[in-house]
Amino acid sequence: MDVRVSGVRKEFDRFPALHDVSLEINSGELIALLGPSGSGKTTLLRLIAGLESPTEGKVFFGDEDASLKSVQERNVGFVFQHYALFRHMTVIDNVGFGLKVRPNSSRPSSEEIRRRSSELLDFVQLSGLEKRYPAQLSGGQRQRVALARAMAIEPRILLLDEPFGALDAKVRKELRRWLREIHDKTKHTTVFVTHDQDEALELADRVVVMSQGRIEQIGTPDEVYDKPNSPFVYSFIGESSKIDVRVENGELWLADRRLGLKSDLPDGDASLYFRPHDVALVSDSDACIMGTVVASRRVGATRRVELEIGGASERIEIGISADHPAKEMSGIAFRPQHWRVFPKS
Amino acid sequence: MALDLPQTESSAKVWHPATTESRAARYALIAITLAFLGLFLFMPLVSVFVEAFRKGPAEYFAALLEPDARAAIRLTLLVAATAVPLNLIFGVVAAWTIAKFEFKGKAFLTTLIDLPFSVSPVISGLVYVLLFSSHSVLGPWLKSHGIEVLFAVPGIVLATMFVTFPFVARELIPLMQHQGTTDEEAALSLGANGWQTFWHVTLPNIKWGLLYGVLLCNARAMGEFGAVSVVSGHIRGLTNTMPLHVEILYNEYNFVAAFAVASLLALLALVTLVLKTLLELKYGAELRAASGH
Predict the structure, then answer these.
(1) How far is it, in rounded angstroms, from Cα B186 to Cα B82?
(2) Which listed residue, A75, A107, A227, B154, has the most CB atoms within 10 A of its CB?
(3) CATH H superfamily, domain B56-288
(4) Residue A154 backbone phi and psi in degrees, to 5
(5) ipTM
(6) By the CB < 8 Å criterion, does B200 face chain A?
(7) Measured between CA atoms, how close is A103 to chain B, in angstroms?
């Protein structure tokens, strides 16, 4: 099922949570909504589900305007952050709930409900736990029950709110891989919300990076990591170093030093962003960034040095090979391999 | 690897956890508490039963089976059976409104629910006298339609409902606020309609808190004196509830009968207490969220 969010704005008591958000999700895609808390990602997910209604704008499921439909009519599978399992029902009753509450005309018989619930529990590898209550399950098992319950209603799309947020690191990694497998098998159009970039980059076909109620960038994990299109994405995803520079005649300058980097920006103050590990050391040339080593530490296979750059107010970090001596107070000259310049905000 | 812990040098000094009092202080506190409870709670309770049986079981049961006493018992049961279910419904509705919706004046409404607790029961009764007496606007109109409120059963039920209204609502509001709305959202997203959501999800989530509230509400409904006394008119065999009947018997120096009826009320209190303790033991975790009392 294609999903299209078109020009959606959402205000809570006049406080805007989303500003004019548009997004197209292709059928069968696994999409991550990634952003810090307060970026509006959960609000967007709830708008798609119909748990909130937009102040302005529309949500389409295929060609059909879903904005006019209630959450019940939209037929979406929603997995809540803390699972929201019904504590007084057994696991199998939880899974069968969505079928049991259907109107008489479309409700399967109780044996059929039982059979389908068992099948789903089998699918999420929980067979044998049918008679347990949610309180008797581990976090990871509850997560699986929640997913089975959401899938039982044969939803048109699956929506997951921080699906791994409440789990410890090890279970989280296992479930991440498992969710990917489930998605590959069922081909449900799936949207999940996360604040964890590793999760988003590893799991999703496309990542929607959000900040302050706006979409900053939509792209494959490679695109958002390698070609961030805003200072926010640069600093939110992966590591980045930033230097305040000046544009003059299409070239970047730091104080009275030319950096050997070109830019199309008009003359004026700007910020240069690059990945700390994506730099090339140059042997003393006049067009490069020169820094003095103030600290150096070994990080895995590389050496991380902190540099004081003449003319720049803040220290920056770069990653170099581990066998580089990088003594304190020694000078290092380098140039970023990939970089972006943004006008100073 | 063994560590040689340095031995305490002076054995006279015994280490105390910071929050533990000395033995003497502990015993003194326990003794004071027990003495207080014995003097002010246990002795009066025992004396009710002692007085009631002073002239033997025959007199005791005669006092309970006498027509006026039976009428009072019947009326009390009738009032409780009307007021408690109505307050159960209103209490759930009020708690639902306050816990799950956001609206202007919510804080005011929450305060209003507590009003019956902060107002003297006599005033609660007088309010109804003002509302329904023959000098009021409503009274004559109702009377012309053949409905007697004051000095009749409807008035007693109304006054009882007023006084016992907060019990269910106050028990449920913190519980429902604590549980939030995600369970309901989950049910709705799975296709359940509003009624199914309430019946299959909300109600089971609050059932123990609800039972607890109903228990307290019932105990108060049967035992209420002040408000009922004002609106009842004390007509023997007609508008006397058990507490009012006890008072009349006592004023007539009929102590055995007075204490016999009172012993029934005391018994009700004991049963309530036992049930309440059982509920707390079994569903303590769920009830703790509802720390209204």
Answers:
(1) 35
(2) A75
(3) MetI-like (1.10.3720.10)
(4) 50, 60
(5) 0.85
(6) yes
(7) 9
Class of residue A51 by CB neighbours under 10 A (exposed 0-12, middle 13-18, buried 19+) = buried
Distance CA(A99)–CA(B120), nearest Å, equals 52
How many residues belong to chain A? 345
Identify the closest residue of chain A to B193 by CA–CA distance: A72
Q: Please, where are the H alpha helices in chain A?
A: 41-49, 71-74, 91-100, 110-123, 139-152, 169-186, 197-203, 221-226, 231-236
- A57 sits in which H/E element: strand A56-61
Which of A42, A82, A86 to substitute to test the interface with B, most B CBs within 10 Å?
A86
Bridge partner residues of A20 (DSSP): none
Domains of chain A plus CATH, in order, are: 3-235 (3.40.50.300), 239-343 (2.40.50.140)
Domain ranges of chain B: 21-52, 56-288
Asked if B185 and A84 come within 8 Å (Cβ–Cβ), the reply is: yes
d(Cα A257, Cα A203) in Å, to the nearest integer?
43
Residue of A69, A72, A75 best to disrupt the B interface, most CBs of B under 10 A = A72
Residue B132 CB coordination number (10 Å)? 25
Per-residue pLDDT of chain A (345 residues; tens, 9 = 90+): 899 999 999 999 888 899 999 999 999 999 999 999 989 999 999 999 999 999 999 999 999 999 889 999 999 999 999 999 999 999 999 999 999 999 999 999 999 999 999 999 999 999 999 999 999 999 999 999 999 999 999 999 999 999 988 788 888 888 888 899 999 999 999 999 999 999 999 999 999 999 999 999 999 999 999 999 999 999 999 889 898 888 988 888 888 888 888 888 888 899 999 999 888 888 766 788 888 888 888 888 888 888 988 766 778 888 888 888 777 778 888 889 889 999 987
Nearest CA in chain B to A73: B191
How deeply is B44 buried, as exposed, middle or buried, from its count of CB atoms within 10 A (0-12, 13-18, 19+)? exposed
**Residue whose C-alpha is closest to residue A152's, from A193, A93, A80:** A93
Chain centroid, CA B198 distance in Å: 25
CA dihedral A226, A232, A238, A240 (to 10 degrees): 90
Q: Are A137 and A129 in contact (CB under 8 A)?
A: yes
